[in-house]
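Onboarding guide, step 5: your first structure request.
Type a short instruction followed by the sequence, for example:

Predict the 3D structure of this protein.
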Amino acid sequence: MQKNPLYSVDARIDRVLNGLRPPIALKGRPPVRGNITERMEALHVPGASIAIIDDGQVVWTGGFGLKEAGTTDPVTTSTLFQVASISKPVAASAALRLVEAEKLSLDEDVNSYLKSWKVPENSFPHLNRRFNSTHLTLQSLKAAS
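The system replies with structure tokens like these:
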């Protein structure tokens, strides 16, 4: 079976570099697209590193801009960044994929999945009351965020 050309690595790289959408779209108007350099400049982002992942494998990486504003040290594919809050949507996306695959339940006690540590009992009593539950679930955590 031949792969769809829209999903080729080259097409995906082009969409990442040149197909960025603005935060809003106007109904009835053609979609506006921008490139990574313009977007970084507009948002005052000195540097960024991007990876394209296909089936769990990194298939492309790129470094853009500078490691720190006011310097000349460029971002490379080896530059390390702090990911800060990006881990939350990544973890949520991974959890929901496991729910789709029926390997995880949003309504099961989260402690049944944890191996090296447990969420202490009554750590989130307001969520337990809200969901009429004695245990903490992914569903209750999702609703709290």
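Each response can be followed by summary notes, for example: The chain has a mean pLDDT of 81.
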